[in-house]
Amino acid sequence: MPENTSSVSDAKISVADTRIASTRVVQLGILAVVTVLVVSAILLFMNLPDADAFNEAVVNVFEANDVRDPDAIRVLEILAQSGTTFSKVLASYRAVIFVLLIFATALLVACLVFLITIITLNRRIGEIERQGIQVSSLILSREERVVLINNLEFKLTDAAMETLSVLAEARLDDDVLTGAQIEAMVSGKSESDVDEAAGATRIKRLRDTLGNQMVSELLVKNIARRGYILAIDKDVIKMV
Question: Both 223 and 158 in a single domain?
């Protein structure tokens, strides 16, 4: 029985370690995504042409040539105006590129978070499948024939309630019960006068009464060659 308690504790520690590791991966992933996009943005803006490059070229033409022809002067004025328009367009392109980079950063970060979340949930489900259902509270009410598992209410038959009560009391004492022991405790007969199959039948009926196959199979564990046990921490059990 101490082995089962240890396995439950190990499961909790493993889940906590997985959560911490996943958080670190998310943080590092977000940092990596942001770093890559920031570096890309810096390189992109550094290699974009200067908005005033065209105007500076026109000024150089004016300075390098003694232009006196009115038509030529008019052409240079048009070029200067074109340069001004080009600089405005390029400035708007820079703003658009900046917005797109921010949008891309947000999308990549969101995708990374969703991916890590899915991986974490898959690992969590795997831990539950291997270690058993994580029960934070199990309250038994014999008078009302009701059991509350994590605040989920299950209405039980008298036989199912007696079986679950026997298992809960055994879990509090760190005992593993065989089918014969369960049948003897429920029926009040001597263990030598009952059959192992009768206890196994009670366990099956209890699981059927709980309804959810995954929950019932993980809650009531069958330890090979030893017997049956509730795969939960005994500190969460309360009987009223």
Answer: yes
Residues 21 and 121 in one domain: yes
- Give the Cα separation of 158 and 164 in Å (integer): 10
What's the token pair of residue 104? 């891309």
Burial class (CB in 10 A: 0-12, 13-18, 19+), 11: middle
Q: With CA atoms as reference, report the closest residue to 182 among 167, 168, 192.
A: 167
What CATH number is attached to the domain comprising 211?
Answer: 1.10.10.10
Whole-prediction pTM: 0.45
Whole-angstrom Cα distance, residue 204 to residue 226?
17
Which helix (H) or strand (E) segment holds residue 227: the answer is: strand 227-230
Cα dihedral sign, 129-131-137-142: positive
pLDDT digits (tens, 9 = 90+) for 23-55: 777 677 778 777 887 887 788 777 776 666 666
pLDDT digit string, tens, across residues 84-107 = 777 777 778 778 888 888 888 888
